[in-house]
TrEMBL record:
Protein name: Class I SAM-dependent methyltransferase
InterPro entries reported for this sequence: Methyltransf_25, SAM-dependent_MTases_sf
Boundaries of every Methyltransferase domain copy: 56-147
CDD domains, alphabetized: AdoMet_MTases
Organism: Waltera acetigignens
Xref: Pfam families: Methyltransf_25
């Protein structure tokens, strides 16, 4: 089942880890999310530079960290999210940048129009097919001609759901974009693997220490934190860019 409600994400913002420096993210494997963020920020900056994008929307901005990392004082940025608590964190994080604005919205931006780039990172995995379709339509409608959209999601060769997320295939995301009129230009696949952390900690240790429900506040558990970091330290980090048989991350860039 996917989670789209404001209350769910506000609870995550307040109780999980307060979005302070994602290296302390331990609800799942911290290294995956930290490394993913580094990769995506680099890709977003490349797209912005290549196409000289100047009005940029972060769809599902959360704590505003991506906006903060890609911010250029000569451009305009706008973050939207369904959670008031997430936006409170975002406003605090970006308080020194007058060219970043925020909006509480479930359907896409209503206050920031004629943008030439939009991106969504690990957002569509948490919404239903219907909501994804509506969101992409609204992004398309508010975007300038020749504007770019970038999405990054975890993918699988077949569809299945977990606690608050849904895995879809690359083809599903591509078709959803093209249905609204976007033309897919580039798609890149990659996978991040911290072997010992994944095989030992995630599969065995984490499940024995904490129940699924209590992982929401797992960063308050010192034993959990120590063992997670130890397994990361012992792991040999690998980053794959080749074909992954449907498993891994997909980064799609499309044009209106």
């Amino acid at each position: 089942m996917v989670n789209e409600t404001e209350s769910y994400w506000s609870m995550r913002a307040k109780n999980e880890y307060l979005y302070k420096g994602e290296k302390l993210y331990t609800i799942t494997a911290a290294p995956y999310y930290v490394k993913r963020r580094e990769i995506i920020i680099k890709k977003l900056k490349n797209i912005i530079t290549k196409y000289d994008c100047r009005r940029i929307v972060d769809v599902g901005c959360g704590d505003g960290e991506y906006l903060l990392k890609i911010c250029d004082e000569n451009k305009k940025y706008h973050g939207i999210d369904i959670s008031t608590e997430m936006l409170k964190e975002a406003v605090k994080n970006c308080k020194d940048h007058n060219n970043i604005s925020f909006e509480l919205s479930e359907r896409g931006t209503q206050k920031f129009h004629d943008y030439d780039m939009a991106y969504a990172v690990a957002v569509l995995a948490h919404v239903s097919d219907e909501t994804m379709e509506n969101l992409l339509k609204n992004i398309y409608d508010g975007m300038e001609d020749k504007g770019k959209i970038c999405i990054c999601e975890q993918t699988a060769p077949y569809e299945f759901s977990g606690n608050g997320w849904k895995r879809r295939s690359f083809e599903t995301y591509r078709d959803a974009l093209e249905k609204q009129g976007f033309k897919c230009m580039i798609h890149e696949t990659f996978r991040i693997d911290f072997g010992i952390h994944r095989k030992l900690f995630e599969r065995h240790i984490a499940k024995k220490i904490l129940s699924e429900k209590s992982r929401i506040e797992c960063n308050k558990n010192r034993v959990y934190l120590f063992l997670s970091r130890l397994c990361v330290f012992l792991s040999f980090k690998r980053l794959y860019h080749n074909k992954l048989n449907g498993w891994g991350y997909i980064f799609i860039t499309a044009e209106k």
